[in-house]
Design a protein that fits this description.
By secondary structure, the protein is an alpha+beta fold. A hairpin with a 5-residue loop joins strand 1 (55-59) and strand 2. The radius of gyration is 19 Å and the shape is globular. It folds into two domains: 8-195, Fructose-1,6-Bisphosphatase, subunit A, domain 1 (Fructose-1,6-Bisphosphatase, Chain A, domain 1), CATH 3.30.540.10; 206-330, D-Maltodextrin-Binding Protein, domain 2 (3-Layer(aba) Sandwich), CATH 3.40.190. 27% of the residues lie in helices and 24% in strands. Strands 4-3-5-6-7-8-9-10 form an eight-stranded mixed β-sheet, with helices on both faces. The chain binds manganese (II) ion (2 copies). One manganese (II) ion (MN) is lined by residues 115, 118, 247, 279. The site of one manganese (II) ion has 4 residues, from strand 5.
């Protein structure tokens, strides 16, 4: 028998104490995320059998059609953290207003922002999906947080990561001491350490972008995309495109194998599509912690001033050399 596997909780308890929170707190918070992941994974596995595919007939605050599974996943997050005495506010891509939990305050000093089901257009065709979380601390102990207190810069996160529902279920997180990945072992219902201290390659050979939007892009973005399709002198091959319509799955591929993911700004929609607080900030911190970069095209994502809960931002994320190249084209420094 090989080495005895490390579970999520035993791994966290062995980590050095970080500057941003106690090991015990992180162990509980990530344990709840793990539980949410098991419940969503269970629902996704049976979705085609129990009539929870398709839409609810409603449109969310982002103007997107709500899938039944979006609602189920959102509710799972809410219920899991409502009963956690560490969390006093929750904000989700699927809810116009945050859920404040004054009954947990002041003991509860954390707030969780999440995208409960990322890539939910994939529900009906059995393709990968994910969930993204970002955890920040309350501003002060003297008053219960308000909606504005949730609107924070990416550098203020104390924990962030994602769940990936692919051929296996994974939990990937950072608390600012590198990035670690766990795979759910379904036989025992535990997350086991499978990817310790993930490092992204300095450059990759893969790009991910919804190129159906090509005509809506700026000249610089178009030129960068044209550039990655040119045959490389060393390999004789252009970059390969890998795009799943699930941001988490696409970023996960790039985190492990290198390359670049882009959801750029568009000519008539310079802010792009992705949400700063629920998607860009947590994924950017994860990728940076693995040695990668994340940019709007002109600045570091984690330095973007957060002004609104549902703020959107262009996202260019991945291997550092690839993101540098993309920025150079987008800013017109390379043609
Ligand atoms: Mn999403
Ligand atoms: Mn979503």
């Amino acid at each position: 028998m090989g080495q005895f596997p490390l579970t999520l909780s035993s791994f966290i308890s062995q980590q050095p104490v970080g500057p941003s929170g106690s090991i015990g707190d992180f162990s509980c918070l990530l344990g709840q995320i793990g539980l949410v992941g098991k419940m969503i994974a269970r629902d996704l596995r049976r979705a085609g059998l129990i009539n929870i595919l398709g839409t609810t007939g409603e449109v969310n605050v982002q103007g997107e059609t709500v899938k039944k599974l979006d609602e189920i996943a959102n509710e799972t997050f809410l219920q899991a953290f409502r009963q956690s005495d560490l969390v006093c506010a929750l904000a989700s891509e699927e809810m116009e207003k945050p859920v404040l939990l004054p009954e947990n305050w002041p003991q509860a000093q954390y707030m969780v922002l999440f995208d409960p089901l990322d890539g939910s257009s994939n529900t009906d065709c059995n393709m990968p999906m994910g969930a993204i979380f970002s955890i920040v601390k309350c501003a002060g102990k003297d008053r219960m947080p308000t909606e504005d207190d949730l609107v924070r810069k990416g550098t203020e996160q104390v924990a962030a990561g994602y769940l990936l529902f692919g051929s296996s279920t994974m939990l990937v997180y950072t608390v600012g001491q590198g990035v670690h990945g766990f795979t759910l072992e379904p036989g025992i219902g535990e997350y086991l350490l499978s990817h310790e201290q993930i490092r992204i390659p300095a450059r990759g050979k893969v790009y991910g972008a919804n190129e159906g939007n090509y005509q809506k892009w700026t000249t610089g973005t178009k030129k960068y995309l044209d550039h990655v399709k040119v045959q490389d002198k060393a390999t004789g091959r252009p970059y390969s495109v890998r795009y799943s319509a699930c941001l988490v799955a696409d970023v996960h591929r790039i985190l492990l194998g290198g390359g670049i993911y882009l959801y750029p700004g568009e000519l008539d929609k310079p802010e792009g599509k992705l949400r700063l607080l629920y998607e860009a900030n947590p994924l950017s911190w994860v990728v940076e912690q693995a040695g990668g970069k994340a940019s709007t095209g002109t600045m570091r994502i984690l330095d973007v001033e957060a002004k609104q809960l549902h703020q959107r931002v262009p996202l260019i994320i991945g291997s550092p050399s690839d993101v540098d190249d993309a920025e150079a084209f987008i800013q017109g420094r390379r043609m």
